[in-house]
Every structure is written in structure tokens, then in C-alpha cells.
Amino acid sequence: MTYADLQAALEQLCPVTRTLAVPRGALRYVALSRYGADTLKGDDTSLAAFARVQLDVCTQDPADPLPRRVASLLTACYLPWDVAAETWDDELAMYRTIIQTEVMDW
Question: How far apart are CA 80 and CA 70, in angstroms?
Fold first, then answer.
């Protein structure tokens, strides 16, 4: 799955899915951002490249199922993922779940 494929899948799950910035006043959204890359090395060559992606899943309600649905989507797509943080964000005035994953870069 590529970054574009992931974004398209997340947009089906949550219509307010954007790269980096979301519309002001959005109350439930997923923001994607790339933050690094890695390669799978073989015999003197790189066999595949992976982009590291952070998903900020923000909601108004701590019981909102959106973070779990995002994790289920990643699992169904066979993507590795990890919840880096689940917290109340004072600046955003929202519950924020940070999920990190990797996708194919080429």
C-alpha cells in the first residue's frame, strides 16, 4: 500500500482526512504526515523503500470509535502500526491519538 492508497482508504473511513493541516473548526478528523523513510536492503541494492507516516486521529469524545477503526483498517491492509500516544490535547481542545505506520514508497 502506498501513501496515496492509505490516504484514499482513510478518506472512506473519515471524510475529513487531510495531509498535515485540517480545516479550522473540524471536530473529528485524521491528519497524515510523513516523517521519515527506510529501505529494505538486499544483495548490494535496496529492494524496497518505506515511508514512515504519522496519523493524528482527533475526536471530541474519548469513546469515539474512530481511532479503533483506523487501527482496524491498518490491520486489514497488513500495515504495521503502533499507538504512540493517546491524550487530551489542550492546544487543539480534542482527544488525540497518534498512530505510526509505514507504507511502500516505491
Answer: 12
One-letter amino acid for residue 48 of the chain: A
Spatial CA neighbour of 99 closest among 56, 51, 50: 56
pLDDT tens digits along 80-95: 999 999 999 998 899 9
**How far apart are alpha carbons 15 and 66 in whole angstroms?**
12
Nearest CA among 56, 66, 62 for reference residue 20: 56
CATH number of 3-104: 3.30.2000.10
Task: Kindly report, residue by residue over 47-63, the tens digit of the pLDDT.
Answer: 888 999 999 999 999 99
- Rounded CA-CA distance 42/11 in Å is 34
